[in-house]
Amino acid sequence: MTNSIAGKATALRQLHAGPGMLVLPNAWDAASAKVLEAAGFPAIATTSGGVANALGYEDHQGAPASEMLEAAARISSAVSIPVTVDFEAGYGMAPDEIVERLIEVGAAGFNFEDSDHVNGPGLIDAEAQAERIAALKDAGRAAGVDLVLNARVDVYIQRQGTPEEQTAEGLRRALLYKDAGADCIYPIIQADEAILARYVAAVGAINVNLRPGGPLTLQRAAVVGVRRVSYATSLFRAAMTALEQAAAEIQAEAAVLP
């Protein structure tokens, strides 16, 4: 099993190098993962928000780690392509345990964010987060599976300081995390092309999140030099909206029955 996962991790890492941009739609269960694989995507990501909501919990580590991991296992076993798991801030686990549990569920990579869900709101100390990233990479190599680590930079979510101060701190964190071994940097919710270009120049591979109708398109992201795009909870929310509409139509029809 380890060799198979290691192969998927290698394949996922290679997808970050081109020739095209890696477009990663986000699944929340086995059924959605199968749809995305059938659509032709070479890899998929999970969405912590979608998975947690589908399980009956809130996002931001509101769901038990065990249930999130069980869901990830169902997703990865439902498809043959690499799956990168949104593992939020690690659920309080030590690096060795995080890597062990992710390998167990078949993950080829994972998101790792620097929001402090225990003592927050706020961010985990940047240097401490860089140490955690280095430890995670070491643990993966020791286990024989160098998981692809997408290091999320949450300065724009936390909104501490002016926009300029947020970007300065975001770039500082991006460089620290890249130097610690992160494979990709994820300045989540940032969509300004000039700012994203600064991240690309500083660290190379970055992930941006898009949403239908948002200010940034796939084409513009490619022009900026973005290597990886994901969609967070957008697909999950679209599916729930369609369900709400269908339910309302059924209820409206049922309401006029004799």
Q: What is the overall pLDDT average? A: 97
Tell me the number of strands: 9
The ordered H/E elements are HEEHEHHEHEHEHHEHEHEH
Query: Total number of helical segments?
Result: 11
Q: Work out the strand percent.
A: 5-15%
Major sheet details: 6 strands, parallel
**What percent of the residues sit in helical stretches (DSSP H or I)?**
40-55%
The CATH architecture comes to: Alpha-Beta Barrel
Spans with pLDDT under 50 lasting ≥5 residues? none
Radius of gyration: 18 Å
CATH class: Alpha Beta
CATH topology type: TIM Barrel
Report how far the terminal alpha carbons are from each other: 58 Å
Number of domains: 1
The CATH fourth-level homologous superfamily = Phosphoenolpyruvate-binding domains
What is the overall silhouette? globular
Task: Explain what you see.
With 258 residues, this protein is an alpha/beta fold. It has a single domain (2-255), classed as TIM Barrel (Alpha-Beta Barrel). It has eleven helices and nine strands. The chain has helices at residues 2-15, 30-38, 48-54, 65-78, 95-104, 126-143, 155-158, 163-180, 193-203, 218-224, 234-255, and strands at residues 22-24, 26-27, 44-46, 83-86, 109-113, 148-153, 184-187, 207-209, 228-230. The strands form two sheets. The chain has a six-stranded parallel sheet with strand order 2-3-4-5-6-7. Strand 8 (207-209), helix 10 (218-224) and strand 9 (228-230) form a beta-alpha-beta unit. Helix 6 (126-143) runs parallel beside helix 8 (163-180). It is globular and about 70 Å long. The termini are far apart.
